[in-house]
Amino acid sequence: MTTTAGILDIAITRNEHSKIGEIDFENLTFGKNFSDHMLMADFENGRWGDFRIVPFGNFEIHPSMASLHYGQALFEGLKAYKSPEGEILLFRPMENARRMNRSAERLCMAQMPEEMFIEALTTFLDIEREWVSNKEGCSLYVRPFMFGTEPFLGVKPSDSYRFMIITSPVGNYYDGAIKVKVEMEYTRAAKGGTGTAKAAGNYGAALYPAKMGQDKGYRQLVWTDAAEHKYIEESGTMNIFFVIDGKIITPSLDSGTILAGVTRDSIIQVAKAWGWPIEERKISVEEVVENINNKKLTEVFGAGTAATIAQIQLMHIGGIDYTLPEVETREFSNKVGKYLSDLRTGKIDDPFGWVVRI
Ligand SMILES: *Cc1c(COP(=O)(O)O)cnc(C)c1O
Predict the structure, then answer these.
(1) What is the pLDDT of residue 174?
(2) Residue 10 lies in a domain
(3) What pLDDT was estimated at residue 2?
(4) Ligand 1 mean position to 310 CA, how many Å?
(5) Is 234 in the pocket of ligand 1 (CB under 6 A)?
(6) pLDDT at 5 over 60
(7) 308 lies in which domain range?
(8) What is the pLDDT of residues 9-55, one digit of tens each?
(9) Strand partners of residue 52
């Protein structure tokens, strides 16, 4: 993919006091440290402008800013890696640009032309190059986000928006297989709601049930459908996959309640290319339990940018803890996890054309 060079006039103010020397790249907590700069742009009078890269820090907002009161806020997430040759690699960033616009549409927010998003992103990462570590398992987590800024307390779509990019150096998100609770009471998303948008409010609403689960030792929830709590949907920030009887199964997006993950789509495409049978369809909690019991279920994993593949070692379903097959025995997820990692870090050929080099 090529980027449209120079459609934006991005003003750059360098940070004269880099904090990079203070960062312990061996011990990174997800989302705690930030690089030296941030990118900002404002949507006013119907157009995006004032793209600027400035030293990372606080900024002022108006107390009546629309998004603080009525939640017009969305985000994206992707990771930048360093190749063995020292280039910065991004994985399918155009998908993030497109998804941001789908989220914006649902939340009645301003959309951003995809070339604009890509140019802002690549210009910013070029400035933060040094922050992309090439240590095994390390990357620079990139967080584009947008929120309504109009100073007005009426409930209506904001007239103005701010788009920003911040980045955070990260290590492995989940260091090992996780225990999850299948949630049968609370709901993440209902048909017709905002589940398909990366809307900030979705995550706020999920904190309470997630905390209930965490207090009992379950790291993440697996959500079920709002109407009957009968079908599996996805996990907190990950899509979910099962391998049953040699078939890869993931809930289909038709329900209109599942976030369309870039990792999810990549796994589906790789599975197809490798000739594994893959089914996007409804999968019930009952089917999962039945196949755990008859030992046909061989793998369960979450898929998302933060963790890539998060192996699930235990599922709590209706009061029972089901221990799943040993992680070492999981052929597909181990293979696809390694393949996607190698692709993202530029270690292997990229037959899909997914990697963008800066
Ligand atoms: C971001 C997210 C995912 C994963 O999407 P990726 O593009 O693969 O990172 C899955 N589910 C939810 C709810 C998410 O917010």
Answers:
(1) 60
(2) yes
(3) 36
(4) 13
(5) yes
(6) no
(7) 178-344
(8) 999 999 999 999 999 998 898 899 999 999 999 999 999 999 999 99
(9) 11, 40
Q: Could you tell me if residue 9 is inside a domain?
A: yes
Quick check: 273 and 265 in contact, CB under 8 A?
A: no
- Give the mean model confidence (pLDDT) for residues 297-325: 96
Q: Does residue 234 lie within any of the structural domains?
A: yes
The CA 45 to ligand 1 mean position distance, Å, reads 32
- For a pocket test of ligand 1, which of 94, 100, 234, 259 has the largest count of ligand atoms closer than 8 A to its C-beta? 259
Residue that terminates a domain, selected from 137, 171, 205? 171
| pTM assigned to the model | 0.96
Q: Is residue 351 part of a domain?
A: no
Residues 336 and 286 grouped into a single domain = yes
